[in-house]
Specification:
Oligomer: single chain
Number of helices: 3
Structural class: mainly alpha
Distance between the termini: 33 Å
Radius of gyration: 13 Å
Number of strands: 0
Helix content: over 70%
Length: about 80
């Protein structure tokens, strides 16, 4: 189940990177959009009333790692 959640976040990040760019994002707009979407998902998980079958903490960690990797990408 954890693998499915992490895979889902990876797919989400890839889809967002391929989505239409935001004019305010500047350089690498798809990566900025992916970071914003991950931040919204993380906020949802943090405010949720339940722990998603015990996977909320792992999902938040996966989001943090995905955001970290995307921020590294922005350096190039």
């Amino acid at each position: 189940m954890k693998h499915r959640i992490m895979s889902s976040f990876a797919v989400l990040a890839m889809l967002l990177m391929l989505s239409s760019p935001s004019p305010a994002a500047g350089r690498h707009p798809q990566i900025h959009a992916a970071i914003e979407a991950l931040e919204r998902a993380k906020g949802h998980l943090q405010e949720a009333a339940h722990d998603f079958g015990g996977h909320r903490v792992d999902a938040i960690r996966a989001i943090d790692e995905a955001e970290n990797q995307l921020r590294i990408c922005l350096q190039y």
